[in-house]
Every structure is written in structure tokens, then in C-alpha cells.
Write the C-alpha cells for this entry.
Amino acid sequence: MDKYIQPKSESITINRDWLYHWILDEEMMNTVYKFGILSKENLKKQKIPFTRDSSKDVGCNGTEYVCVCKRLERGSYAYQKYIMGNCAFIISPDIEKINTKKVETEVRKKGAFGKWFKPKIVVEEKSIVNYQDEYLVKDRIAFSDIIGLKIPFFVDDDDYQMFLDFLERTKTDLPIIDVERGRVTNKENVKRYLRRR
């Protein structure tokens, strides 16, 4: 990353277990700061309008779950589709999450044996998400579980300005991370960079 084009930054080791949830706009960031990232049911309970709640919408939270994803070495489809080109929250990998559930299936013996023997119960792990890099978090992700802000692959000054405005207004010091290039900066560097424009 050229320090004359981007804010001053330094190398960082990207944690492969970090989780990501995309940021729609500044209004969403403010709501997340106040309430956390909420499932649709919790948004309704808090009387927060969900601006992208439509049948055509993809990648949004479910009724009871918040959808997040990981950046995998291979098969990172949700990450590439929703996160790579967008701003996103970086979330602690320590939160409780699922992407499979145990399903019991009854298997009966065929023919005459089926009459004499009880059915066998087989327990399998079944995927409950669209992509292997997706995970579901029940109800809510607290703002305290957000550990950074991810810039898009093709970042522009408006993205930096949105992050700076948010960090200044909320008096928080989350790092601003370029996950694809393994770089990290902070609001002071961004402030200096935007002042130079």
C-alpha cells in the first residue's frame, strides 16, 4: 500500500477466525453502536426500521439470527460476495455461533429384518447456511464484540470519512483494517490523510 495514496498504516497479521458483518451505511453504524447488530426480530422489538427488508434482498439477517462470515483460504463465497468489496465490522471469533445442526434420521432394516429389529437412529451434522463460510449468531452481537472496521478492497475517501465521523462521534478507537492487504491504521492517521487532500 502506498503511504502517499492511503493513510499511514502498518502490517498486521490477519486472524483467520475473525468474523465479518457488512456495513450498509453510517446510519447502520450508529444503530449498531447503540444496540449491537440485531436479528430482524430484535430490530422490530427495538422499533428500528430495517431498510433492506424485502423479498429480493440477499445477505441480510434472519428473523432470529445475525449472519456473519469468515474469510477462508478456499470456498469463501459469502465473504467474496458481501464483505470483500464493502465496509464491514470485524467481530471477535469468540462469540457463540453455528453453521450446522444435528439432525436425527431413523433408518430401518429392509425386508424381514425390518420387522424384527428396531430402527437405527443416525445423527448427522447438516448445514443450515447457504455457504460454508457463513455462521449464524442468535439474536444479537454486542458492540463490545466488534474489534475493528474493515475497509473495502477498493476503498475511497468517502469510506475513510464515514469511519472517521463514526469514531469521532462515538469516541471509540477501533482499528481500521485492510484485510486483503494485511494493513492497519487508526483514526489519527485517517484524520491527517483526509486533511491533506
Q: What stands out?
A: Helices lie at 26-35, 40-45, 77-83, 113-116, 157-170, 187-196. Confidence is low (pLDDT under 50) at residues 53-59. The CA atoms of residues 46 and 181 lie 37 Å apart.
